[in-house]
TrEMBL record, chains A, B:
Name of the protein: Transcriptional regulator, LacI family
Alphabetic keyword roster: DNA-binding, Transcription, Transcription regulation
Lineage of origin: Bacteria, Bacillati, Actinomycetota, Actinomycetes, Kitasatosporales
Residue span, HTH lacI-type domain: 4-58
Keyword Ribosomal protein in annotation: no
Gene Ontology terms for molecular function: DNA-binding transcription factor activity; transcription cis-regulatory region binding
One Pfam family recorded for the sequence: LacI
Organism: Actinacidiphila guanduensis
Length: 340, 340
DNA sequence: GCCCGCCCTTGCATCGTTGCAAAGGATCAC
DNA sequence: GTGATCCTTTGCAACGATGCAAGGGCGGGC
């Protein structure tokens, strides 16, 4: 059974192809009688739009590309789900690309690898330096998700990482922690910002510098979190009484390492993460975390894409989206400094 | 800066458009000199293929659609990652659709909602009945992932659910469990099959029927797993000494509920799940699970799609993919029946 | 020396839809 | 009654690539 084209529908309804197109696309000036007749033919023949042809002619495809480092990482999976849902509400289909954190792949995307098939690109990059050549050359609707901004040409949507980190560490301080380890430094901009927030919180609390410690990890995964904390526990230094993990995956790994070693959480060590992935409500003990509002991020990002499509010169900007501190048992100590 | 078309490249290189196309698509009969010259122009102008135009003309787009119920569920996220990686190796881009388990959406996909934009569809359905009308009418390359088969018209790729469930429950029996609860029955075909495996294992072990118990849940999520086990613990019936969760998310919820109530795992209750999501290596205690080989599933599925594109009448078949039992602490009891 | 055949290159039509702009018809006001 | 205006409908060309098939050029065989 061959494909049904507008031409077939037009013949069946006894009108021109253009009129069928008008009906399909909701053009207002079509007489009710004609609209009715065409609609019947559409239904009867089971017409389905060829999005490729429409995209080729009109220049708009109805696709948005979403590029994330690893879809299997819970945070990115949840982010992708939010984007897909938000896009569906707007009649947009999402193309998902996985960059594997490969700078080469990220660069390829920035240089337009997805341009003509997608109306816009949402990029959650790990590595691309802000002043990359490819970034400069990009001339299509692009919104950065999360941390990286690419130069000052494109808008960015995400939480304020410095403030979020400060909130998380500040919470640990409130809970009585005085020797807090930051877990997760790496080369990323994101890592720098969360490190900065950590520093600001410790400064504000007048924690002595000798008690500052930033532990680097390669990837923000459970595995690296566990390995880093194992090493920390095996080491000769004094044990921390708080761990601020740069994301929840690291925190989950940290909790596993602490559990193995019989360290009590939160009594011996309080733990807090960032992302509030679903998993975090089910760890042992449940993990305190910073919860970004993924739906807001997805909505804003799509709106910003739409804006870029419309006007030529839209002022790039940073959209700081809301977040909440979700307090769970991993950081909740018996001795409350003040009532919640 | 406008888009660079083949025409622009052709003019720049002083050849015809067709020759540029020949170079780009790797047509063999092009003189080295010409090829060289065209290639230089391609690079210099930064030509990038318009996939829409190519797709419109050639009928193939290089896209494959993947539809899963919820991308935020770890199992589906990991599956999607595997599919995206496998597709990337073949130069295919993946369109991800989230059905939210809505039968209407699944039906729409089966009735060809993605056809002309994707060369084939991978559908991981929850609800569509095997003999649905839409399923019968589908006339495009389609492969079912996971459990549901749609009539006998399309191939299915996934583990043998009955056998996998039997293996999981058999393992609990080996560990000495005698009153094993199955957690997760629902209306799905998948649920029926795992229930059947549970029954077979208990029968084989000659467990008395009074000790069989299948607990229904609405969704296979952490939350429903926790709620169901809480209810089980609050109830008046005798406690089980083993829990077979139909997937790892349920198992994670079950572990959380057991932890809350101070039930010791695996001493009081041993727990096993299916899927072996990454999270399962980090639960308290680490979760024993059945690990399907997602890479194999993704590879097979894409191969089957390609086959369907080629020949008209490919015999539909069920591809049972390999799986392993990954034993972790949640089921490993002190008293070993036999050495591993 | 001539013809045949292979290799390389090319032009044209086409995929299915929408932008553009104008034609035909009906309605309404004066 | 007549002109103007608006509403409907239409035809044509074009988006950028590839399928098809033929044309030109060159080398080799006899």
């Amino acid at each position: 059974m061959a494909r049904v084209r507008m031409r077939d529908v037009a013949e069946h309804a006894g009108v021109s192809v253009r009129t069928v197109s008008n009906v399909v696309s909701g053009y207002p000036h079509v007489s009710p009688a004609t609209r009715e007749r065409v609609q019947r033919s559409l239904d009867e023949l089971g017409y389905r739009m060829d999005y490729l042809a429409r995209g080729l002619r009109s220049g708009r495809t109805g696709f948005v590309a979403l590029a994330v480092p690893f879809l299997a990482e819970p945070y990115f999976a949840e982010l992708a789900q939010a984007v897909i849902s938000a896009a569906a509400r707007r009649g947009i289909t999402v193309l998902v690309e996985s960059t594997a954190g490969d700078p080469e792949v990220e660069r390829r995307i920035l240089s337009g690898g997805l341009t003509n098939v997608a109306d816009g690109v949402l990029l959650s990059a790990l590595t691309v330096p802000a002043d990359d050549d490819a970034a400069r050359a990009a001339d299509f609707p692009l919104v950065m998700l999360g941390e990286h901004s690419v130069g000052d040409r494109f808008p960015r949507v995400g939480i304020d990482n410095v403030a979020a980190a400060r909130t998380a560490v500040g919470h640990l301080v409130e809970q009585g922690c005085r020797r807090i380890v930051a877990l997760g430094r790496n080369g990323s901009e994101n890592g720098r910002q969360r490190t900065e927030g950590y520093r600001q919180a410790l400064s504000a609390a007048q924690i002595r510098r000798v008690n500052w410690l930033v532990v680097p990890v390669e990837d923000w995964t459970r595995e690296h979190g566990r390995a880093a904390v194992r090493e920390l526990l095996d080491g000769s230094g004094p044990l921390p009484d708080g761990i601020f993990a740069f994301n929840d995956a690291l925190a989950v790994g940290a909790l596993a390492a602490l559990d193995e070693s019989g360290v009590r959480v939160p009594d011996d060590v309080a733990v807090v993460g960032i992302d509030d992935i679903q998993e975090s409500a089910y760890t042992h003990p449940p993990l305190t975390s910073i919860a970004p509002d993924l739906d807001v991020i997805a909505e804003r990002a799509l709106s910003l894409l739409a804006e870029q499509e419309g006007a030529a010169g839209v002022a790039p900007r940073e959209e700081a989206t809301p977040y909440r501190l979700v307090v769970r048992a991993s950081s909740l100590r018996a001795r409350p400094g003040s009532p919640t």
